[in-house]
Amino acid sequence: MALYEHVFLARQDLSQQQVDALVEQYKGVISANGGSVGRVENWGLKSLTYRVNKNRKAYYTLMDLNCPPAALNEMERQMGLSEDVLRFLTVKVEAHEEGPSAMMQKREERSERGGFGDRDRGDRGPRSFGDRDRGDRGDRPPRSFGDAGADRGPRRPREGVEGGAE
After folding, report:
1. DSSP state for residue 141 in the 8-state scheme
2. From CA 59, how far away is CA 9, in angstroms rounded?
3. Has keyword Ribosomal protein (predicted)?
4. Cα 136 from Cα 121, distance rounded (Å)
5. What is the pLDDT of residue 87?
6. Would you state the pLDDT for residue 146?
């Protein structure tokens, strides 16, 4: 039998008990077709990136499956017919991960990998965003905004344009 990780999104207006009932229903489909369900993680109600069937949030659930492809096809067929399931995704894996998934790990554990904030800036020194001194710019004269356009003289009309010089 093959190993799969399966994630599905349930509607936001369901209760957690109804989501658990969906999980039990799909576990029954897998076991009736000769498979087994390992770890089941409820990731909770999360915001969606974009609206799906007028829903802005969804209940995310991960299931580790060990089943034949026919059992998986039947479960996905039933999910496609269900109005309570917005989306689902199944990925075939070589082995199931041990411990909690990346979504369930605490932020502190994930931040041990390092983020953008602890990159080495080398010899550039620390960043300063709007307060850096521009210093003297000896290669160009200072700007003057008060007399812009004052020394340009009268404007000439363009040729070939109505009202211009002929």
Report:
1. P
2. 5
3. yes
4. 26
5. 94
6. 67
What whole-number distance in Å separates Cα of residue 22 and Cα of residue 52? 19
CA angle, 18 then 65 then 3, to 5° = 160
Q: How many helices (H) and strands (E) does the chain have?
A: 3, 4
**Per residue in 118-152, pLDDT tens?**
556 566 666 666 655 666 666 777 677 766 656 66
pTM value is 0.62
Above 70 in pLDDT, residue 160?
yes
Average model confidence (pLDDT) for the chain?
A: 81
- Which residue bears the tokens 């009202």? 163
Q: How far apart are CA 74 and CA 30, in angstroms?
A: 8
**Residue among 64, 70, 69, 72 at smallest CA distance from 95:** 64
Q: C-alpha distances in angstroms, 139 versus 135, 148, 163?
A: 12, 21, 43
Residue with tokens 């008060």: 146
Q: Are strands 85-93 and 55-67 parallel, antiparallel or unpaired?
A: unpaired
- Residue 39 token pair: 């770890």
Q: Tokens representing 147?
A: 């007399």
